[in-house]
Amino acid sequence: MMKMGAEDKKKLGILAIVGVFALGAIVYMYSELSTPDVARPVTTTVAAPVPVRVQPKAGEARNVGTAATHLDPTLHMKAMLVTEALVYTGSGRNIFSANSVPTVVIPKAIAPARPKGPVVPAAPLGPPPPPPIDLKFFGTATSAQGVRRAFLLHGEDVFLASPGDIVQRRYKVGTISANSIVIEDLTDNNTQTLPLIVH
Hints:
- By secondary structure, the protein is α+β, with helices and mostly antiparallel strands.
- It is 21% helix and 20% strand.
- The longest helix has 33 residues, at 2-34.
- The protein has a domain at 136-195.
């Protein structure tokens, strides 16, 4: 009986030790699975680039320095950790859903884009009108024989013309009345009536 009691104590001791190890393993596994992984900062050491000197060929310009010496490839972990802490809030729209597209209000047209009714084609344009005659009629004078003559102005030149006279080798004087005169431009057969200019 005494021998059996000692063996039982030995078995109980072994079971107690195994139980302690098993309990420690369970606690360790539970703590590993229940806590999220935290990214540990990784220190990266990058060797600075060594500028390579290239001998220029004959006739080529020599470049001073290289662009590689101005680059800084070192990772700045503090700046990266700040961006990891940012939380995107957004506007509440799900970019993967067509139902969350905001409605766009299109203003109503003030006038129709195309006029209603039949479209009337534009009338064909004829030849341009003749240029105005460059004379000014500013008075009349009557001769002793009763012939009425007209005072005409062209620039700074003054002409006293009777019916049938030609002024400036271009304008033929027609009918002269108290308030108007008929002039024909002989270069293009253009006849115009000039009114009396009252000063």
